[in-house]
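CORE FACILITY INTAKE
Project code: CF-77B
Contact: R.S. (postdoc)
Sample description: multi-component assembly, two entities in total
Requested service: structural model of the whole complex
Turnaround: standard
Below are the sequence entries exactly as provided by the requester. Do not edit them.
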Amino acid sequence: MAVDNGKMLAWALGREKAPLVLKNAKLVNVLSGEIYPADIAIGEGVIVGVGEYAGEEEVDLAGRFVYPGLIDGHFHFESSMVCPEEFAAAVLPRGTTTVIADPHELANVWGAEGIRYFLEATENLPLNVFFTLPSCVPATDLEDNGARLEAEDLAPFFTHPRVLGLGELMNVPGVLHRVPGVWAKIEEARRHGKIIDGHAPGFTGKELAAYRLAGVTSDHECTSPEEGRERLRLGMHLMLREGSATKNLLDLLPAVNRFNVSQCLLVTDDRHPDDLLEEGHLDHMLRLLVSHRVDPVSALQMATINTARYFKLWNYGAIAPGYQADLVVAEDLTNFKPYAVYAKGRLVASRGELVVPIPRSQAPLPGTRFEMAPLRPEQLKIPAGNSRRAWVIGLLPHQIVTKKLLLEVPVVNGCFEASAEADIAKLLVAERHHRTGTVGVGLVQGFGLKEGAIASSVAHDSHNLVVVGMKDEDMLLAAETVARMGGGLAVVAGGEVRGTLALP
Amino acid sequence: MAVDNGKMLAWALGREKAPLVLKNAKLVNVLSGEIYPADIAIGEGVIVGVGEYAGEEEVDLAGRFVYPGLIDGHFHFESSMVCPEEFAAAVLPRGTTTVIADPHELANVWGAEGIRYFLEATENLPLNVFFTLPSCVPATDLEDNGARLEAEDLAPFFTHPRVLGLGELMNVPGVLHRVPGVWAKIEEARRHGKIIDGHAPGFTGKELAAYRLAGVTSDHECTSPEEGRERLRLGMHLMLREGSATKNLLDLLPAVNRFNVSQCLLVTDDRHPDDLLEEGHLDHMLRLLVSHRVDPVSALQMATINTARYFKLWNYGAIAPGYQADLVVAEDLTNFKPYAVYAKGRLVASRGELVVPIPRSQAPLPGTRFEMAPLRPEQLKIPAGNSRRAWVIGLLPHQIVTKKLLLEVPVVNGCFEASAEADIAKLLVAERHHRTGTVGVGLVQGFGLKEGAIASSVAHDSHNLVVVGMKDEDMLLAAETVARMGGGLAVVAGGEVRGTLALP
């Protein structure tokens, strides 16, 4: 909340000049809902006064807007496909100064070692990085993943000052059926007074009530205003998500009103590097909101103070004495294009460019762990039997949910085959953690592939190897290519590797 | 947040009938800002489900409104002049189910013993009673009061589950000048993650910024919208007060807007027994708000969820699974007249009448402690010297602040005298804790007394004996009468005691 330092009181009282004063700001006050001119006095990384101040160093903002540094309430570093240092370098110039990360993906591969890596790698970043602990590793008991995390594995992390809660509790049946391992984690979180994030797409009514009763207080998986409203009614915070694969912000907007807006917050969840660089991060969401007639102060509240309060980050997300000096200076509240970004009281970005070095963490990467049994061509076959129709996974654009379709599928030599005409591809999932040799094959509609194959070891939540393709030979080559790289993505067509991205 | 009980999950899921279901409610949801029909399922004192439920016991509410039990964010039991049990009996039928009390007055007389008494006396009430610890006993270092409470005296209380923070920090100069004893209390509160309530009438600008920087996050002493706005801007919660002596609710209303309403809460502070019985408690404030065009959901938010969240009472103040079942059933949202009140899942009041016995606490009253040196007539004299004018305390209606006036005052035998015509009375304050014999006399304008005298040992904050009168003899008799009772109030006129109220 504040620091008990005589110097800071002297700065606040104006008895001594504060080390840094931002003069002539147009302050966007997310606490009072007002915008007004003020100087902002900063010392020791903290805002010590707002009003008329003189500083040792003074920066004239010439009437530019200043709003609190943006806070992403739920996301995965892994989705950015870069290390935390590079992620920080990408989002700080866009005004994001705080993130709450769930190391769910790395933990599915590396377990507690993955969490430790992230905690160490983010220790000295100019970006404020907090964590929720992955609650569901594996995601369900049916998964073939790399590691198991039980309550006793998570327990030591709950006392870490940057661990804020238990992450997306996607094992909803485990909660409702009182699976002891799941409840042990819930109780561990509660015992430490930490929040419990939810993940309950499609759940409704009494099941959702029971889930809430268990102590879950947010959901980021809503796709319709009805789902959003039901969660808000239950006292769950509504995380409005705009990721790369899943975009729900505008769909959920009708659920937000002036009575419940303080329980709504912006999250990116899974945001890919191209979208980060081209569209942006939370700044992109603010632009979207304002272009859809949300007033800028409400939009900023959802990206700052609301998120901070939900996570009990009492001195983040606002511009007032005692709050950490994370600030964005911008020309307007429509483009949200930062003229300057301050994090912990220090200028970190200017006109879109990072102006501080990002310290490289000495934390050792857990390293490559890709242990897949070699694939055999016959493992890719899908025998048709006497049928001409097959169950096919139907994709929906920008949605995480899929449909179960029964479609006519071409049969060649007694096996179902892909069809460019019907937009049906073959899908292979191969275990890659413990060389179990487990393989699953199926068909998927709506992927849009015309020829060749794509293989990826980025495959939520267990991150086994997933291959989509139109031809078995290309699929095998793509799979082998990713295996050789120790993880990543590979694109193959006509028997040739056309592109790779190594992601160890 | 919730309880980990298999039975409760079964009730929530509808697999078993909940012990109590309120059918056909019109639910006022302060979380989502909506009003809609629903059943409310209750078990173990907790709301387990909202929707369509069947119960072991079912109560048909026939479409009546149900809103969360009201929460008073700051008040003093002492001002009600009755014991906590009687206070609970008075406010429960009006819909108040939770109060945050500051035992500031009793602590000024009895110290830690006063706090212990209140904690014990409120242990088993149907009313939820929480406390903030009195931060300023004595209120300032200039006071002659009964006890001193240092940080080490308060420390053991901070771990009590019903102690929520440090109470109204009225020693603002002590905060700003870094008086070690004051800061030791601030640090003790912070160390326990507890909130710090403020009390800073008249403070503004840099001094207020420094006060906020110290960690103070509320103020209940604002009297103008400007004061209110300044505090909201600083991230302090604005407590809108409507007491008996001080009524600021409507004055502050212009400071409240849709962006900051979640930081506003209703408090009564000092509410006298006659007002409690005639006008009401928080229900009175709700009526006032709605009659001044505040929408009922916002008004209720300020009396429920906002208060709960400020005090980190995560399972109070709303109607949703996991929240404590404190509920008010009412015919409308204009009169807020409870048809029924449920506290901890139990019917406690019906149509304005208490329907449960209030358990008498076995906690011993600290007892009478009234130790005043006898008063001598000459102690009441105010020598005029050569002057015809005197400094007079000018009262302002319904305000706690006073004016300093220089007025013509009648002089008799070389001493200033009271004047009914000019509405000037004499004022005596006599130390009553340690027989120090310290006495202060002065003049007060605007009290409205025509003859006689009134003496009271209820005199904030040190509760020395205060006597206001038009005649010295009556003042002495009134003082002696209160001293004989061991504390209380006495009214005297024409040399006769006309009325007394013993308040040991």
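Facility notes:
- The two ends of chain A are 40 Å apart (CA to CA).
- Residues 69-313 of chain A form a domain with the TIM Barrel fold (CATH 3.20.20.140).
Invoice: internal transfer
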